[in-house]
Amino acid sequence: MTFANSPETLIGIRDLKVDFRLDRTTVTQAVKGISLDIPVNSTVALVGESGSGKSVTALAILGLLPRENSTVPPGSQILYGGRNLLALAPGELQKLRGADISMIFQEPMSSLNPVFTIGFQITEVLTKHLGMTGRQARARALELLREVGIPEPETKIDAYPFQLSGGQQQRAMIAIAIACEPKLLIADEPTTALDVTIQKQILELIAALQKRLRMSVLFITHDLALVGEIADYVVVMREGDIREQGRVEQIFEAPRDAYTRALLLCRPQLTRRPRRLPVIDDFMKPGPLAGGNVEERSRGLRGDEEIILEVRHLGKSFYSREGLFGKREFKAVKDVSFKLARGKTLGIVGESGSGKTTVALTLLRLRGESSGEALFDGKDLLSIPQDEMMPYKRRIQIVFQNPYASLNPRFTIGQLLMEPLHVHRIASSEGERRDRVYKLLEEVGLPEVSFFKYPHEFSGGQRQRIAIARCLTMKPDVLICDEAVSALDVSIQAQVLNLLQDLQDEHHMSYIFISHDLAVVKYMADQVMVMNEGEVVEVANSDDIYRNPQHPYTKKLLSSIPQGWRGARAR
Amino acid sequence: MTQAVALAIGVQRAESPGLWTLAWRRFCRDRVGLASFLIVVFFFGLMAASGLHLIAADWSKEVGVNYAPPTFMGPEVADGGPSAPGSHGGERTGVENPFDPLAGVLAEIRAASGAASVAEAQSPTLVFGGDRWGRDVLQKTIKGTETSMFVGLVAALLAAFLATVFGALAGYYGGWIDDFFNWFYSVFTSIPYLLLILAIAAVLNQKGTLTVILILGLTGWTGIFRLVRAEYLKHKVREYIQAADAIGASHARRMFVHILPNVSHVVLVQLSLHVVLFIKSEVVLSFLGFGVGVDTVSWGSMLNEAQSELILGYWWQLAAATLAMALLVTGFSLFTDALRDALDPKLK
After folding, report:
1. What is the 3-state secondary structure (H, E, C) of A443-504?
2. Which residue of A223, A265, A374, B345 lies most exposed, with the fewest beta carbons within 10 A?
3. Minimal CA–CA distance to A530: which of A508, A513, A510, A553?
């Protein structure tokens, strides 16, 4: 299985299998016998959802699989320069790691050692693998920092990781990785933790370095759209198997595998807005694609809608102690005003630190003191005394980002869903409450037995459904979705978005939909509010803002969205 | 409340392992843990049986000759030792003092007790030897186990309870409440531990099991407090607590219904660690003479007696107490280790 008319091969993976032992009796096969080639001087993208085995493959190349519970059955081969990396002695492998093959990880903050300076961490590689002296290594480190585009390298070389921004940290990480001019750079989701504008810069940096150093890059990601811009070859993985591999233009223009097609279409696109997003199952089933995708949904406000929530001059400051008596004020949200119409969705987009989550938490009074007012049914939510807040609490609800953290692990689903009913004394009897919960479970697409299960028995998407069901128990008028689908896989994302849309159609709830993902917001929102550094930059109907952005920041944000394959040609 | 509901409609209940069931399954896979668990259970059984007077009820009876050696060593015969059968030890054998003013009274008492002890027929050897008064060391050890374990357990429960309440309040509310408890904690820990114990012992001014429990419980909460507070600090900002706030759950509900089950593994492990610690502390206290009263026996009081016996070569009381204590403490520690591994919540 090699790419058609491929040039010289750098690394050849032959029938790689990796088993993980979960406990004494259960063994799962994370990678089920894959074969692929990484050609010299090119970028290969390994695409797949969580659990597809893409990271495990990368770790196998580096020989970094956890020794205690993973086994690679004999017969698997990773060939590099005529040698099988899987059979190399640990010492030999260590010489290759960092010198010939190096890796960038997803979280720059946790992959840099916080107690050493950036300079120290770069020179360490140089002295260890290339045998440079301290002075030579420092000179080279400066050169590297300049190469990866860190401003003022002379001062930043002595900075500690926490003194750098997220983007700079990832640049420093890249500098360490390319220090020895490796032949293969493995980038494991290098931009997933970064904002969209920084993501674009890092991608451009990796692409430029690949060309300049004539190295190969194995780029691992869950986002097919990213791949179109930088990859030469694409390998699509699912559940430990390769579903499809080929040149990038073939994958994007004529995908042969149903799963590849599904991945391409499940993500909301900027150009289209079907009434229902297609999900993986639509593609995996034989027969023609289910209807309903053709019809487009129109969004936007006409201006005469009933306003349910009006926020005026909302402000929120955090204080940190400075000196003995001094206080330093940090304005997280400055003078934010907006109106939310009944049954409509307001999208809030912005990068990390823009204050979008703070707006949500302040409205729910989860964040204490604030200024401004939020009129809900003629009452100012921000100034109601705490004990009169209860009836309003149930009318505004929130779905959090991380479905793994927002459900109490020690409660059964039944207990989780019954709790709001008890707290707010909804329904007259226990039996009635139970019936309600069962109905809700059905509504969000979960079986009745879920009532007795614990959160850890569910997948991420199912847990997010449970979180949504918990909000629905109180029949809220306003539902705030704070990055509610950001932590989910592409296919699951589509399902949850469809569920949210169905619920809105049925119950006429208003949504405040917060996300850093502009495509998702475009799909969900009638109106979009762009925030930057605590301020509202622009508010407009969603079609208008994407077609004709007014503010320079909005323009910058929109131009950073990965465009996929077509965008790549326009580069 | 909701649990009751779940049970009420148990008809359609699909069996689904809870976190505790999963923890138990993990625990059963750990062989060392399981063995130590059995040891702990055995000691608990011993404690319960002794507490209900099923065994070792007549531990204070003088059933053997004084310092009766263990049966497996055979009766002591060599070097004119004190134990001629029927006699009551060195102090009673000597010649009568003709000038003793109490001679008459003593003779009367001796006659009465002599009659009684003759009726009992004191045996020359005992299973694991006898003490100075001829009491069975084995029974004494069992009774001592009861006292020591009871003290350790109740004191640890008291300490863990105080620590959990303090830690929950401090960690959850933060601000001046946190400052207050931290100040209180600092003051408490700045006093040398033994000095603090002795001071409380002096204030309470009465010997007894309850006093020992109070001393240990009131001084031992500090370490657990620190851990519980840290856990609460960590959990109160978690999303599931924010979610609970959003649905309108009260402070008390969030503190004890939502967070407590999630930090209970910390408390539980600390609890069992402190049981071990307090059992050892009780020994130290009794050894120093601040321990349980003279009418009760504990491992500490046994060891205290043993220090004078050892010079005379009577090692079995020391051995019995040490062996029992070592077995329980080791078993409990290993059990705690296994417990911690099993309870470590893997929040996938």
Report:
1. HCCCCHHHHHCCHHHCCHHHHHHHHHHHHHCCCCCEEEEECCCCCCCHHHHHHHHHHHHHHH
2. B345
3. A553
Tokens 């002794």 locate to B50
Q: Are A15 and A76 in contact (CB under 8 A)?
A: yes
Burial of residue A109 (CB within 10 Å: 0-12, 13-18, 19+) is middle
Per domain, the residue ranges of chain B are 20-58+136-343
CA A547 to chain centre: 25
Contact A400 B245 (CB under 8 A): no
**Helix locations, B220-292, DSSP H:** 222-236, 239-246, 251-252, 260-288
C-alpha dihedral (B202, B207, B212, B218), degrees to nearest 10:
-40
Q: Could you tell me the two tokens for A311? A: 């926020």
Mean pLDDT per 10-residue section of chain A, whose length is 571 residues: 62 91 80 91 90 88 86 89 86 86 84 90 89 90 89 89 86 89 90 82 89 92 84 91 90 87 82 81 67 67 85 88 77 90 91 86 83 86 84 89 85 90 87 90 88 84 90 91 85 88 91 90 92 90 89 89 61 40
Instruction: Enter the pTM of the model.
Output: 0.78
Query: Which A residues in the span 439-458 are in contact with B, Cβ-Cβ below 8 Å?
Result: 448-449, 451-454, 456-457
| Closest chain B residue to the Cα of A390, Cα to Cα | B248
Determine whether the interchain pair B258/A408 forms a contact, defined as Cβ–Cβ distance below 8 Å. yes
Residue A527 burial by CB count (10 A; 0-12/13-18/19+): exposed, middle or buried?
buried
The top-level CATH class assigned to B20-58+136-343 is mainly alpha
In the numeric block, the tokens 């008064």 are attached to B133
Sorted by where each starts, the structural domains of chain A and their CATH numbers stand as 1-100+184-198+207-255 (3.40.50.300), 109-179 (no CATH), 257-297 (no CATH), 342-372+381-569 (3.40.50.300)
Burial A118-157 (b: 16+ CB within 10 A, else e): bbbbbbbbbebbeebeeeebbebbbebbebbbbeebeebb
Strands A510-515 and A345-349, sheet pairing = parallel
CB-neighbour burial class of residue A347 (10 A; exposed 0-12, middle 13-18, buried 19+)? buried
Q: How far is CA B231 from CA A1, A5, B162, B257, in A?
A: 52, 59, 15, 15
